[in-house]
Amino acid sequence: MKAEIICVGTELLLGDIVNTNAYVIARALKEIGIDVYYHTVVGDNFARIKEVFLSALKRSDIIITTGGLGPTRDDITKDAIAEALNLKMIINEEALIKIEEFFKRVNREFTKNNLRQALIPETSQIIPNEIGLAPGVLLEKDDKIVIMLPGPPFEMEPMLYNYCIPYLQKKSGAIIFSRVLKFYGIGESSLEEKLIDLIDSQSNPTIAPYAKMGEVTIRITAKAKNKEEAIQMIIPIEEEIKRRVGNYIYAFDDQKIEDVVAKMLIEKGITIAIAESCTGGLISHKLTNVPGISKSLERAVVSYSNKSKIELLEVNPETIEKTGAVSEKTAEEMAMGIRINAKCDIGLSITGIAGPDGGTLEKPVGLVYIGYSDKNNTFSKKFLFKGKRQEIKERAANAALQLLREKLLEF
C-alpha cells in the first residue's frame, strides 16, 4: 500500500512552523509496512488543496492530511476534499454534541462558525479528538483511504497512534522493522565498497548506508507479517556484515557512543577524570546524560584558559609557551594532570580550535588534540575536523569518546 502525506497550512509554507507532523506520520506508517512516496505542503487555498488532493488520489492508496479542520474561514481541508470526491458535507451529531457540551461547560457562547467542526463529508466517520474539539475524518471510497487529522501535533499524534495506525495495520497486514549498525573509523564509500554485493542484491531485507556527523550507519530493513519474522530475516544479513566489517561497529539502533562508553566504564569498574578546553564540557555533558555514570566519572574540568591548565591540571607553563595550548604535548599533560590529581584510572583531555576565528596556517580552525593517560601509557592523537563551531565541538567530543572506547577494550 502506497501512502501520501499532505500537510495544509500557509504557516508551514512560510516557515513560521516546522512541519513535524509529516515526520511523525511517516515514521508511524513505516513501522506497519506502509510505504510513503510523497510529502506535500499546501497553503490554506481551496483550489490548491483540491488540486493537490486529486493528484494524490491518482497515485496513492492512502492519503493522510493534517491541518485545516478548525472553525475559521481558512479551515477548508474537509470542504476541498469533499468537493474533489463529489461528496456532500453533513453534520455529525456525535461531534456536534461534544462541541455544544464544551461551550456549556466553559460558559461561552456557541458561535455559528464552530458548527464547521462538526461537518464531515457524507459516508465518512469521525476520528475522536480527546484533546481538542475538531474531530478527524476517516473515509473509504473507490479502494482509497482518506484520513484527515488536525494540525496541532498534541492533538494529531494521539489520534494517529490510538486510532489510525491500528486501523491501517489491519489493512496492511505487515510491519517494517529495522536494525541499525553504527560504524566508526571507516568512511561511507569504503564501507559501501566492502558490502556492495549485498547492497546490489538486496530486495527484502534492504540495506541502506548513510552518514551523519562523525559516524556511518547501515540500516537493515525487513518487511514481514510480524516483528519476530522480520528479525529472523535480518539476522543472516547482520551476521554477514559483522563478519566483513565487524571491527568498525561500535553500537546498534538507538545507542549513542556515550551509552557504550559509560556501560564499559561501569561494568569494568574503571574511574575517569576529564579535562576539556575547546569542547567546553560537551564530553562530560554527554557522559552525565547516562544514568549510573557517577560510579565511574570522578570529576570533569573545563580548563579553557592557559591559566586554568597550569593551575588545575599542572600543565608546565613552558609547554604552553613552546608548543602552544593546542598541541600534542599540552593535551598529554592535561590528561596526565587530571588523572593524577583525581587519583583515577584514566585521564582524558581535549584541546583545539573550534573557530570560526583563531586559526592560522600552521594551526587551522578544526585542529584538535585528544589526550589519554593511564598508569601505563600517556599519548595524544591529532585530528582535523571540518564544519562550523558547534559541528567541530560535536565531532571532537565524539572522537574523544571513540578513542576512549578503543582503549577500554584493552582493559
Automatic annotation (TrEMBL):
Origin superkingdom: Bacteria
Gene3D superfamilies in UniProt: 3.30.70.2860, CinA-like, MoaB/Mog-like domain
Ranges where the MoaB/Mog domain occurs: 4-170
Family, per entry: Belongs to the CinA family.
PANTHER family linked to this entry: NICOTINAMIDE-NUCLEOTIDE AMIDOHYDROLASE PNCC (PTHR13939), NMN AMIDOHYDROLASE-LIKE PROTEIN YFAY (PTHR13939:SF0)
Protein's recorded name: Putative competence-damage inducible protein
Organism of derivation: Thermovenabulum gondwanense
Higher taxonomy: Bacteria, Bacillati, Bacillota, Clostridia, Thermosediminibacterales
Gene: cinA_2
